[in-house]
Amino acid sequence: ELDQFFNGKLLGFFSFNPDEKKIKKILAPFACGKLFLEISSNQQKKMTIKSYVIDYENEFFLLPVGLTSQE
After folding, report:
1. Domain span at 49
2. Of 45, 44, 51, which Cα lies nearest the Cα of 14?
């Protein structure tokens, strides 16, 4: 439904400092195959980004994927 709203152009989702509850909400059929970025910062204000693809094999899960720079 959400992907249809964006005419199939939705690439993925992101969340800042997500907890387990937030992540469970995104592990659903509408998000399967989409990118999920977990963005967090530490006490030194350094930002980290972890990237995943939302996948399914008997249950939904986050499959880690690497990001590359396009410089």
Report:
1. 2-64
2. 51
- Maximum alpha-carbon separation in the chain: 40
Q: Please, which residues bridge with residue 66 across strands?
A: none
Residue 71 domain flag: no
Q: What is the pLDDT along the chain (71 residues), one digit of tens a residue?
A: 566 666 767 788 999 999 999 999 999 998 999 999 999 988 788 889 999 999 999 999 999 998 766 55
The model's pTM is 0.77
Q: Dump strand ranges (E) for 1-71.
A: 12-16, 35-41, 47-56, 60-64
Residue 6 lies in a domain: yes
Beta bridge partners of 16: 39
Answer yes or no: is 49 within a domain: yes
Q: Is residue 70 part of a domain?
A: no
